[in-house]
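[Meeting: bench + compute handoff]

Bench side (C.D.) handed over the final construct sequence. Compute side (W.E.) agreed to return the predicted structure before the next meeting so the bench team could plan truncations. Sequence as handed over:
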Amino acid sequence: MLHHHQEHAVWIASYLALFNTAEASVVAAFERALGGDGGRDAITLLSPIANTSTRIAVVRDFLASREGTANWIYGALPAIKTIAGCAGFRNRLAHGLYASNGDQLSLLDSFVGVRKATSTNLTIDDLKAEYAKLENAVAQLMLATAAGFSGKIDT
């Protein structure tokens, strides 16, 4: 289906790849908050959690509980909240069904257990906007976490 919508396919693949970077950035922020720098502690704690949204929520809630302990967390939390919000769109792209009607591509939600399937027209502009939102959040999270590691902003 997507071979008839190559520009859509490129943006979908780019979004899914960027979301992997977002997940890695969330893990790095969690490792920073735990006081480590190698990622082992964060991965050890998060790996038993199979659901991506739940992993992100665990990190978000943990950082929120430590918000007054380090300045870098103030920059990280809004970014993680945005990434958490993007997880639903990522899931729709990864697990939905695609339907084509000429030039128009539709995304059908097909999650197991969904009682009523919904269909959304998926435009290039929509994909670009979602990508930009996620990209900005990833950049903000990386900058906040890096500042925490460098000590330039951290207290």
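W.E. noted at the follow-up: The two ends are 52 Å apart (CA to CA). C.D. will use this when planning the next construct.
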